[in-house]
Each structure stands twice: as structure tokens, then as C-alpha cells.
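seq as requested:
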Amino acid sequence: MKVRFHMSDPALAPNAAISTVIRMLVAGLFVSLPLWPQSDAGTKPRSTSVAKATKKWRTPWGDPDLQGSWSNGTMTPLERPAKYAGREFMTAKEMEEKHSTEQADLERRGTPGSEAVGFVWFEDRLREGRTSLIYDPSDGQIPALTPEGEKIRAELLISAPRQRDIGPFDGPEDIEIRTRCIVRDALPRLPGTYGNGYEIVQTPGFVAIVQETIHETRMVPLRRSAHLDQSVRQWFGDSRGHWEGDTLVVETTNFNDKTKFLASTQNLVLVERWTRVADERIDYRFTVSDPETWTKPWSAAIPWNKTGPLYEYACHEDNIDMYGILTGARAKDKKARETIEK
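C-alpha cells:
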């Protein structure tokens, strides 16, 4: 069992009820509906092919079984560094050198009163020797941005630090959504230094995907139905799933404009694929399409590996950061008024 430490949850306790609650939630939504036809929901992987597993993992009702606790933590970067240009994998020597450097970083500890960064809560992430998570395009790079994409990225570079550090902070809605504990990151979720846990729970007709940070649960119906009307926009969009052989394929649309995946717009179309390839591993891939942001779709593959039970990520909007930020802003306003009155 792997214990994770998070800055936002100092009093951790195993949330043993996560699976039970989600199962009850899914069971309450259970409807025996036909699965989608076996058709494409987006761009299929063109490279980094998945070896077919001889073993079949099945639920009691016959669907491919993806259930359990998983981590997508990896040391592989999203884009391919220039020194690995034209190569999908590192050499054995390069892997050894990289491992030594990373291990030294992970073992660093900040001493009291120093400016050194502490790594107490960092997870030991997978090292698989790939040079990038992106496999399409074959150069391992995110495609060029459109003019609109460049504009969005520039705005994000300006607004992010301003929102986080400067304000204005007239109310909770002015504070970034991470601090408000609404959403940690947009979909698709890329691996980070910690908080990479997921739990998958299935019933006939539904798949629930619990994300460790910030304890969001995606409910994916496996049924023949259209996406929500385009006027309905959600934090994690509207997902519709189906099985293609042993692979769960989920297409998500209808995102809102409050979260952006690397400068994407609310018209992002996300196609995800989960294929169990071993008792301890799921091959996960995604393809993102947004003509307003990128000149063409692109795809990445991230291994999901079996892990211990998820622990509660104790983050909620009514937290001490909110009080501190808003109280500090009101004190600043008061001081400014007093200066003007003088």
C-alpha cells in the first residue's frame, strides 16, 4: 500500500468508503441499456501499438474489467526533448543516467529555514524509457498553434500569475479554481509529481472514474445516445462511452470555458481509450482535437499501473486559503481608502 502526502491534506486518513460510495452511486444510475455499436469515436493510434494480451479480464456480466486503483505517474515528459529527436526510446545507458539524476532529485530534502524545495510528498513514478508521451505526431511534439491558439496561450501566461498573486480578490469567484478546490486540472489529465491516483468502478451500463485530485468522479454512460445540447457546458464536459473489443472508448465534448487544456477552447473534443494489458497495467491513450487551438489533432499514451487504495484528498472550497486571501484583500482595500482620505 503506497501512502501519499499532499500539501492540502495534513491530516490524511484512508478513505475506505470511496469504492462503496461510488458503487452505490453507479448502481443507483444503473439501467440495462444496449452498448454503442463498435465504431470509431476518434483518431485511432497509428503507432506505439499495444501488444494483445492473451488473458481476458471480465466482469461478472461479461464486460472487459478495468476496475481497481491505478496511477498514471510517469517520469516520461509530454513532449520529446531535442536530444532524443527521431527516437521513441532511450538507450539503456541513457535510462540509467536519467534514473540516477531523478533519484537524486527525489531524495533531496529542504532543511528548515532554507530555500531548498522539499519532495516529501512526491511519488515514485514509473520509468519506462520512452522519450515522450506524445506518439502522434511522430516527432513527439504538440502541433503548431493556430493564431487563436497563440492568443489564448498568451492570455493564459498573463492571467494565471495575476489571478494567483495579484487579484483583484473581491470575492471567491476571483480566486483560481485550484485554490477554491473546484477542479484541479482540465481533461485530459496529465501526470504530475503527486496526486496521480484513479479508481475505476463498473456496473452494467456505466463506468465511474474517480480522480484523486480533487476527488472528482466522472460518470460515463455506455449507451446509445447523443451528447448533451451544445448550450449545456460542464467542468469535465459530457462523456459517452462504448466498448471496441477489449478497449473502453470515451468521447467527451461540451466543455465549459473555465478550464483550458493547454490553451484549448470549450469546443475541444477528447477521445480516450483504456485497454487492460496485464494484471497490473492499463494502456491509456487520448486524442485531442480543437481546430481553434491546434493545426491538427494529436495523441499521447500514458501507462496506468496498479496501486494501493486511494486516500482522501481533503480539499474543499471553504478553506483557510480563501479566508486569508479575502481578508488580506479587504485589509489592503481599507489601507488604500485611508490613504486617499488623508
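The helical segments are 18-29, 92-106, 147-166, 320-341.
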